[in-house]
Amino acid sequence: SVTIPHKEDIIKLLDEVDSAVDDIGAVNTIVVLDDHNNDGKCTSNVGEKKLKGYNTDWIGIYKPVKEYLEKTGKISIDSSIDFKKGQEWNRDGSRKYGLVIGAGGTARAASYAVKKLGLDLIIYNRTPEKALNMAEKFDGGCLQNEDLYKDDRTMNVLRKKLEVIIEKYKN
Is 122:143 a contact under the CB 8 Å cutoff? Predict the structure, then answer.
């Protein structure tokens, strides 16, 4: 188990990483692989050990959201989605959105999960530059402070919810 502040720095010390690590940029689990691969086949160097890093944070976000969305019939999920392909996976063809508030490590894992769910990603962060960088990395959109004050019913609901959240964490 790897915790903050080592989740990013540990990557360079590992022999290999899972594909989610490449996208999220952090490791929270390390597995020692011995002379047998995961498929049970022997490697060429008997007794050789390798360290492989995984990020499982995104799975803790993905699974309950996926279960909820499927149970409520809001979306059909294909777990093989590669978010870089920009595929639509909603049952009714409509666009569904996932809002991630923040732009740190957990937000990267959440953004990865949102994209794996086939949702359009919207990121809000108090530091706009960080939100823009994350939106670019995960092919998402960015919600700016001025967007929260548009005269639009959806944005007003979102603004009110964000104000409650922000106030809660200010104090």
Answer: yes
Strand order in the sheet with 16-17: 16-17, 50-54, 29-33
Active site residues: 7
The pTM assigned to this predicted structure is: 0.73
Q: Return the H-helix or E-strand segment holding 98.
A: strand 97-101
Tokens of 91: 């049952």
C-alpha 97/C-alpha 159 separation (Å) is: 16
Query: Is the pLDDT at 171 greater than 90, yes or no?
Result: no
Count of helix runs (H) and strand runs (E) in the chain: 5, 6
- Residue 98 and residue 81: Cα distance in Å, rounded? 15
Q: What's the whole-number mean pLDDT along residues 118-144?
A: 90
Is the CB of residue 101 less than 8 Å from the CB of residue 165?
yes
Whether 169 has a pLDDT exceeding 80, the answer reads no
